[in-house]
Design a protein that fits this description.
Distance between the termini: 29 Å
Structural class: alpha+beta
């Protein structure tokens, strides 16, 4: 059985020139070779021969129940531009040591935009988060927001 992890990282957010260049190069490669798109669509494409369980799409804002509530309001999360790359790397990190996090490992990466209506309509992240959880469930955060460190 896999382990549960909720990792919340506070940090600066924004678009860097490296991110833009990487995204542009990826789209140029995909335009030249449509098979690149298949690899981009699969969160486990860096784990050859592994299919794994259905993974979260991470393609639209939503209230994330795994994050609990803040002053009685659900916490909203939104798509993270690097999630498609980051989740592939995390799945590969699970795959290489023989499924260290479990064969039922599920991974997504979203930006926390905040609680309630303000979080729902916010275009900017409140906190950034990488969440990794096995099918067994997710641990709840005991306090929100988490202390720095």
């Amino acid at each position: 059985m896999g382990k549960d992890f909720d990792i919340v990282i506070q940090g600066a957010s924004g678009i860097t020139s490296r991110l833009v260049a990487s995204r542009k190069a990826t789209m140029v490669a995909a335009a030249k070779n449509p098979r690149v798109l298949d690899r981009l669509r699969s969160p486990v494409s860096l784990a050859p021969g592994f299919e794994g369980p259905k993974q979260p799409s991470g393609n639209k804002p939503m209230v994330d129940d795994a994050l609990g509530q803040f002053h009685g309001e659900g916490i909203w999360v939104a798509p993270f531009v690097m999630a498609a790359i980051n989740t592939k790397n995390v799945h590969r990190s699970n795959f290489l040591p023989g499924q260290a996090y479990g064969a039922d490992f599920v991974c997504d990466a979203m930006l926390i935009t905040g609680p309630g209506a303000k979080g729902e309509r916010s275009p900017r992240p409140w906190r950034s988060t990488g969440r990794w959880a096995a099918k067994a469930g997710r641990s709840e955060l005991s306090a929100w927001p988490p202390a720095p460190g």
